[in-house]
Design brief:
Length: 578
């Protein structure tokens, strides 16, 4: 027997046929108990796998039940009925001693592998749910991905540097989580939405290449691919770097990570395709297009300039033509209901059947020019899907519909990871609420053309050195060449309606640091949780986080957030006004 601790000579995943006749000790949870005649079979589970145990002496079974933690001593024997689908399936342990290490004293609130358990119950007993094989493997895979990415960044010459968790509140887009200060009455820390300012200050400090697997905190609502409250990102920054340098690093890290953990998938190799923001909006009605989907969007507003179709009058009109073969009327009706469920006015359509006959919801309303256009445009067994609405809404709806239609027509290659860059974002946009100019992406970015573009161009025509990595229709990473010039920063914020004193107040360290010699620098960050989601092949972010919040940003297991005492509130100078 190997010289190991008293609880196990082997783990539950390592015994093989070559270990027959060895005296062994294993420990773990009782996964199943199965009686067959006068014999009892247990399966023992630990972090590494499952081993079957044969029990002939009934006395050994006293007080045993599923999910007890036990120590088993016995002899490895060859299984009569082998299970070649499990690594230990050729052997079993003939037990001569079973000791209870941790008694499972009550009935579990749910069966460990039951997929029909309510989400709230699983989150309340998350430590039990994490015993589920698939979920457990997800968390182990997350750990392995974390190590791989960290090692990759070190191999590329980056230094890992931790940045503060308690910092100051700043207008970065989302709501801050605030922490009251005991020693500074009436003042608050904020949990960082990202390490953005700190990593730029590290560049000013002379650190050439920084990275961090960084916790970030944003008081946002939950989505399937976004955890409320906190998340992790792989953050990086480089001095004396251009956009091209960032692209090279991000492509290397992302491609090698996906290739290592999903070797059987079709993965886009570097260099990733680059798409201008405006081209992405025009072709896909989205700045995060799923390029596995071959469908393209066309603007046909001009085609309908003389139309008599009342829902089209004065609207932006977008169209997708797709191969549909002989789809029934219900197919089109269901898609129409889908658009209406998104508060759209509806989906308009035309189809050409295999007899080259055109019909559809607006066929009888087409004028001669419109009819001739579609006779040329629609080939046999194809359909035109049309959305008409105000410009921004038409774009948004068609972008969503393109994804829906691609799924409905089975056009999406599920075995493909298709990366691309979206770049050349507009620096400014019009705020729909205030009708004023505002930053469209990241206020710390460098405008293309520098100070000259800020002084001479229409702000809405200025582009920024900003870029996103998109994977299968999901924004995976975002970054920019940073603005390191105080003069450019002041002018950029001035155009967005911020006076110089606002910059000094909100970003004091960054603003003043740039006046003491700042190198050109650029960086990016990708959502680590989202990368793990893709590699675990799940659409739910809670499946890759050990202890997640529910959709209301509550930790049901720890009862957080919870109430605190009046004494605690008094210490931090707070009175509640519910």
């Amino acid at each position: 027997m190997k010289n190991v601790n008293c609880y196990r000579s082997h783990n539950c995943g390592e015994l093989r046929i070559c270990d027959i006749n060895k005296e062994v000790v294993i420990s773990g949870w009782i996964d199943t108990i199965r009686k067959l005649g006068g014999l009892t079979f247990l399966t023992i589970r630990d972090n590494y796998g499952i081993t079957q145990v044969l029990v002939k002496d009934e006395k050994l079974l006293l007080n045993l039940n599923k999910e007890c933690v036990v120590k088993v001593k016995g002899i490895v024997i060859e299984r009569e009925s082998k299970n070649l689908n499990m690594p230990t399936g050729e052997i079993e342990i003939l037990a001569y001693s079973i000791e209870i290490l941790g008694k499972c004293e009550s009935i579990l609130p749910f069966e460990i592998n039951d997929v029909n358990v309510k989400e709230e119950l699983k989150l309340k007993y998350r430590y039990l749910d994490l015993r589920n094989k698939k979920l457990h493997e997800n968390i182990i895979l997350r750990s392995n991905i974390l190590k791989f990415v960290r090692d990759k960044m070190y191999s590329l010459g980056f230094n890992e540097i931790q940045t503060p968790i308690l910092t100051s509140s700043s207008p970065e887009g989302a709501r801050d989580f605030l922490v009251p200060s005991r020693l500074n009455p009436g003042k608050f820390y904020a949990l960082p939405q990202s390490p953005q300012q700190f990593k730029q200050l590290l560049m000013v400090s002379g650190f050439d290449k920084y990275f961090q697997i960084a916790p970030c905190f944003r008081d946002e609502d939950a989505r399937a691919d976004r955890s409320p409250g906190e998340f992790y990102q792989m953050d990086m920054e480089m001095s004396f770097a251009t956009q091209e340098d960032v692209f090279a690093v991000m492509e290397d890290v992302l491609f090698s990570t996906f290739k290592h953990f999903a070797p059987d998938k079709d993965i886009t190799p570097p260099p990733f395709e680059r798409i201008n923001y405006i081209d992405s909006i025009n072709k896909y009605c989205s700045d995060k297009p799923d390029l596995r989907n071959p469908l393209l969007v066309e603007d046909v507003t001009e085609i309908f300039k003389d139309t008599k179709i009342s829902p089209f009058l004065g609207k932006t009109i977008k169209m997708i033509i797709a191969p549909t073969n002989e789809k029934p009327r219900s197919f089109y009706d269901n898609l129409n209901k889908y658009i209406q469920s998104l508060e759209g006015k509806g989906l308009f359509w035309l189809k050409n059947n295999n007899l080259n006959e055109i019909s559809g919801s607006i066929f009888k309303s087409l004028n001669e020019n419109e009819l001739n256009y579609f006779k040329q445009k629609l080939t046999k067994n194809s359909s035109a899907f049309i959305i008409a609405d105000d410009k921004n809404k038409a774009i948004k709806l068609m972008g969503i519909f393109r994804n829906k239609l691609g799924e409905e027509l089975n056009l999406i290659d599920k075995n493909k990871f298709h990366f691309c860059w979206i770049n050349n974002f507009p620096f400014y946009e019009i705020d729909e609420q205030t009708n004023k100019i505002n930053f469209s992406h990241n206020p710390f970015s460098m405008p293309q053309g520098g100070i000259d573009s800020l002084l001479s161009k229409n702000p809405l025509n200025i582009l920024a050195y900003q870029y996103d990595v998109v994977l299968n229709g999901v924004e995976l990473a975002s970054g920019a060449v940073r603005n390191h010039d105080p003069e450019i920063m002041v002018k950029a914020f001035e155009i967005a309606g911020y006076e110089k004193n606002v910059i000094e107040q909100k970003f004091p360290a960054l603003f003043h640091a740039f006046s003491f010699g700042a190198p050109p620098h650029a960086g990016a960050a990708f959502g680590f949780d989202r990368v793990v989601m893709f590699l675990c092949e799940t659409d739910i972010i809670r499946d890759v986080i050990a202890f997640p919040f529910n959709k209301n940003a509550q930790d049901l297991m720890m009862s957080a957030p919870n109430e605190v005492t009046q004494e605690q509130l008094k210490e931090v100078h707070i009175k509640l006004n519910k």
